[in-house]
Amino acid sequence: MGISSIISLTRAMTTSQGVDGFRQAAENEMMRLAGIVPAGDNAVERLNTAPPGRGVNVMMRKMPFSKKIKLVPTFLRTMNSVTKCAEYMQQRQPSEPVAGSTTFWDLVQNVARENGAVEVGFVRISEDEIFEGYAIPYQNAIVFTVGMDKEAVSSAPSYDMLVEVITTYASLGDIAIALTEYLREHGYGAYPGFPVGGVVDYVRVAEQAGIGAIGYHGMLISPQEGSRQRVNLVFTNMEIPEPAPNPHEWILDFCARCQKCVRSCPPGAIFTSAVPDPITGRKSTLHYDKCLDYYGANQGCGVCMDVCPFSQAGYDLIQVGFQKAEKRREKRKTAAQHKMQPTIDIGVSQPAPMPSKAPDVVFD
């Protein structure tokens, strides 16, 4: 990292808007060179985690200087990853698609995992998934996740959780760079996604890649790490295999019955049913403004990530239990229908509605 980057980092650690400015400068490099596929007509605006006087800006302003200094090594690693990603964006790559193979795709997955990735998938990104006003170099992408330390997540909201988040961003950048280098060495065009502040919604893209499903808390839930993860990708001109149907869609039914994140969210920012987001217009179960303000005032958060059953009990155990419970519910429903007798009495009483608050244990 050069002296200018170190100066920028120092400014980021000591001022309220330095972090966002440093990130935006790196993303501007990508936009200058990667305007091949622009956002579609139905694209949404990218949400800002550091608007003036809110979010990350509040967090950095309120944080004691002693804690900021302790963050320097972690920030250096993350900013170094962002800087390297920006450098790769300056190296123009061929735009024509190049055929891939199942064998090479397996090798790509191995490289990702050898460098720390947990889940790996591939997807063709729709223009509407690109944030408004941005563009991507290729529509094909390799998507991957990095797990987060369970002990750090369990301490949320806390300084340790904040350090873990920043560390994870650094790992996301390192893996993206390793994959980019590997693809280019084998004749494919590739650009790393920025680990902080991407130009597409990484979580939605990961769901479309079949890696997992998005929970009520707005985060990806996948088999290996549950909700304890972050996502990044690498854009490539390599032709990708036809994605299989997402095998994790049952998670949405589980979330509807669980709702533990809804009850545990400190600012009450998670809803029990999807409503139009006041900023993007997309339906969501997450109130972004409430989440952002709490995040900024408490050195980040992550409570919903911690309490999510998939982060605690594990994917396989929950799936088995949920499937058994669904079978029992279906049997009870069938038995109740058989007991019902035809009647012409229009005044017959109706059963009471089920309570809206789900219990912590939701298998039955």
Shape: globular
Percentage of residues in helical conformation: 40-55%
N-to-C terminal Cα separation, in Å?
55 Å
Instruction: Round the mean pLDDT to the nearest integer and report it.
Output: 83
Oligomer: single chain
Number of helical elements: 14
Strand content: 5-15%
Please describe the biggest sheet, giving its number of strands, its sense, and whether it closes into a barrel. 4 strands, antiparallel
Strand ordering within the main sheet? 2-4-8-5
Pick out the low-confidence regions: 14-19, 344-364
Q: Specify Rg, calculated over alpha carbons.
A: 22 Å
**Helix/strand-derived class?**
alpha+beta
Order of helices and strands: HHEHHHEEEHHEHEEEHHEEHHHH
Count of DSSP strands: 10
Topology at a glance:
Blueprint: H1 3-14, H2 18-33, E1 37-38, H3 56-62, H4 65-89, H5 102-114, E2 120-124, E3 135-136, E4 140-147, H6 150-154, H7 159-185, E5 190-192, H8 202-208, E6 213-214, E7 220-221, E8 229-236, H9 250-258, H10 260-264, E9 270-276, E10 283-286, H11 288-297, H12 303-307, H13 309-312, H14 315-339
What does this structure look like?
This protein is of the alpha+beta class and 364 residues long. It has a domain at 3-250. Helix content is 47%, strand content 12%. The protein has helices spanning 3-14, 18-33, 56-62, 65-89, 102-114, 150-154, 159-185, 202-208, 250-258, 260-264, 288-297, 303-307, 309-312, 315-339; strands at 37-38, 120-124, 135-136, 140-147, 190-192, 213-214, 220-221, 229-236, 270-276, 283-286. The strands form four sheets. The chain has a four-stranded antiparallel sheet with strand order 2-4-8-5, sandwiched between helices. Strands 1-3 form a two-stranded antiparallel sheet. Strands 6-7 form a two-stranded antiparallel sheet. Strand 9 (270-276) and strand 10 form a beta hairpin. Helix 1 packs across helix 2 (18-33), helix 1 crosses helix 4 and helix 3 (56-62) runs parallel beside helix 11. The chain starts with a helix and ends in a 25-residue tail after the last helix.
